[in-house]
Structure formats: structure tokens, C-alpha cells
Amino acid sequence: MKQAEKMTAHGWAMVLLACLIMSTQYISNNAWNYGYTAAYKTWGITLMQIGAMASAAQLAKTLTNFFGGFLVEKFGYKPCLLACGAGFAAVPILTVFLYRSYVALFILRILAGAFSCCLYAGANLMAFENLPPQNRALAHGVILTGPNVGIVLGSAIIPGVITSRGWQAGFIVAGIIVAIVVVAFAIMVKGGTKKTEEAEKEQRPADYTKAVIKACLTKNWLLGTLANFLIVGIVMGLGTYLTLFLTEEKGFSLVQAGAITAAASLVGFFANSASGILSDAIRSRKWVVIPSILLYGLSVYGFTVFDSVAALIACVFIKDSAFLFATRPLNVMVAESVPGDYMASTSGIYNALSFFGSSFSPIIFGAVLTATGKYSSILYTTAAITVLVAFIELFMTETWTGKSLRSAKSEESAEA
Q: 135 and 243 share a domain?
């Protein structure tokens, strides 16, 4: 028992470190998000060129996630996550020296997207290898609080540095913060490196790629990926037009609309972990994600019903919380549906396919808006898609295994 507790304590330390390494991307990107506002005229580039760089970064992030998991399984999660973190430290610092060339800036933005390739798969593997199954949903929620940590750190520090010291200082400070996280990660994480060739040969079949593809063709994996593709798509599509709905159709000022949409900006700090706590407590992934996605749709429908700022802020708070409760246990459910040897590679593919949902939905939602002429039609579309997602998830098989593992341990103790 003491050994199990010790392993769990070690596992939670690894989860917290994975959370921090996940934050590096968002600290680094905050330097860009705040820095270009102050510096794009100095750089001699247009707003359209900034948009092109942002799109290139997102595309690089999507494409590289397809093979990021394979890198994690080949080299181990520690070196891969260190490489990603080091890249996020280098990009803002290099920007200070290369800003005079648009081509160089464009390449740096592509690299900023590409360096995320191993984050999701590597952090997931850290949690799965260091914690028992009954704690995986909570661990996953804590890890995905990393983006919130990065956004808050970046927002709290970088704008003030840029205002007082100039945009160059903001970029350099961001790089230094990320570098500190990377050094701490390198010192504190033990293990997670490349396996010996003998162990690798024992675990991997002759045709590893075919085995990964086979794992991705299981019912749970396909249905879960389709569900998350749709969820990510409606979140991006809704986010694109929600402010316009509030100002054009509801008649709010831009300041009021901003206050409404930003109301739940810190919800991730508790909802990410709370979704895991609930999933582990009721011993189910499936019966957290299905009610949550329906609640998301109901809260979106609420935007068409209510007119007061307070009621709409409540809708935003419920919407953002329900999104996290609908996706975090779903991510774990998909990962648990494949053999552990392929968890990292399939997680990378799952993450990449989910990103594609955000690539197409703004265009589709724009077509719906054009056809109907009403912003509320987008909200009705979103609500309808959440019902479809819930229907898809009904056919998924529950993956929570803590109960069976505990029974097996009890039987072993009785025999001893």
C-alpha cells in the first residue's frame, strides 16, 4: 500500500510538471499576441500578413500533431517535451533579432505551431504511465489547465513589460520564463526516455504503423474522434460570430458584448480538474460527456431566449464549463480505448483530426448565416449539433477500469 501511495504521489508530481510544460506554448504565443500589436508597424508588415502567419501557425500545429505521437513513442516523452519547450523559449527570443525579415517572421510562426506537435501526446503519456487508471480523468484535467496557466502568466506579465520596456523586452521575458520551466522540467522529471532496443522490439509488432492504424479503426476511437471533431468545430464557429450576434442582433455595445463573452475566462482553472474529479468519482467517462454536451447546447440556445446581461453571462459560464466537462473525459475515453503501446501515437492523430474541426466550421457557419440572414441561426445550428454529438457518444463503450483493477487487487490481497 505504501508503495502504491508513493507511486501516486510521484505521479501527481509528474502531472503538475506536464501541466507546466503545456503552459509554455501559451506563454510564448502571448508574447506574439501582445507584441505584434505594439510592433507590427516597426516590423513593416500589414494586418493581412499577420493573419497569414497566424493561419500558417495553426496549420503547422494541426499537421505536425499527426506524427508527434510517433516521436513520443520512439524517443520517450521527456526528450520530446523538452524539445517542444526549448522551441517555445527560442521563438520569441529569435523574433527580437529577425523581425526585419517577413520571411523569417513567417518561418518562426510556423515553428511556433510545429513545436506543439508532441505536447498533447507526451503529456498524456506522462499521466498514463505514472498514475493508476482510476485517476486518469483528473490527471488529464489538471494537465489541460496548462493553457490557462500560460494565458494568465503571459497576460499578467508580458503587457506590462512591453508597456514599460518595449516590445523586445516582452519577447525576451517570455522566452526566459519558458526557459525556466524547461530547465525545471529537465531536472525534476525522471524516466520518460527512449526504451532499449530489446524492450522496443518486444513491445512493438513487426509492422507498427499498421497496428496504430488498426487501433484508430476501433469503434470507440472513431466515434470519439468524430464527436470531438464536431465539438471543436462548433466551439470555433460559435466563437467567430458570437460577438456579432450580441451586437448586431441583441443590440449590446461592444463593451457589453466583451464583458459577456469574457465572463467565464477563468473557468478552466476549476472546470478542467472538476470534470476529472466527477468522472473518477462516478466511475464513468461516458455519463459525464453526454449530459455535458447537451447542457452546452442548452446554454447556447439560452442566448436566443435571454436578453439581460446577467442571464447571458450565466449562459457563457455554463457553456464554457460544459465544454470542458464534455471534452476532458472524452479525451481520456478515446485514449483508454487503444492499447497502451499506441496511446501516444493515436493521441497525436486524435488531436490533429480534432483541430480540423476548427478549420472548416467558421466557413460553414458563415454559409448558414449568409443563407438565413440571422445570427441566431448559428446558435440553433450549434444546439442541434450538440444533440448529434450526444447521439454519437451513446454508442461508445465505457472505458473506466478502476473498479475491475481494485477487485483484482483485493483478490490478490486475499490470496496473500
A: no
What's the domain range around 247? 209-406
Scan for cell 517570455, then name that residue: 174
Is residue 209 exposed (0-12), middle (13-18) or buried (19+ Cβ within 10 Å)? exposed
CA–CA gap between residue 102 and residue 114 (Å, rounded)? 18
SS3 404: helix
Cα–Cα distance, 173 to 346 (Å, whole number): 35
Give yes or no for residue 402 having a pLDDT over 80: no
Give dist(CA 307, CA 366) in Å, integer. Answer: 24
The pLDDT of residue 330 is above 90: yes
Q: Does the CA dihedral 41-42-48-53 come out positive or negative?
A: negative
Give the pLDDT band (50/70/90) at residue 405: very low
- Has this prediction a pTM greater than 0.70? yes
Could you tell me the CATH number of the domain that includes residue 95?
1.20.1250.20
Sign of CA dihedral 245, 247, 251, 255: positive
Confidence tier at 227 by pLDDT (50, 70, 90): very high
CB proximity list for 226: less than 8 A, separation 6 or greater: 392
* Total number of domains in the chain: 2
- Amino acid at site 174: A
- Say if residue 416's pLDDT is above 50: no
Structural domain includes residue 201: no
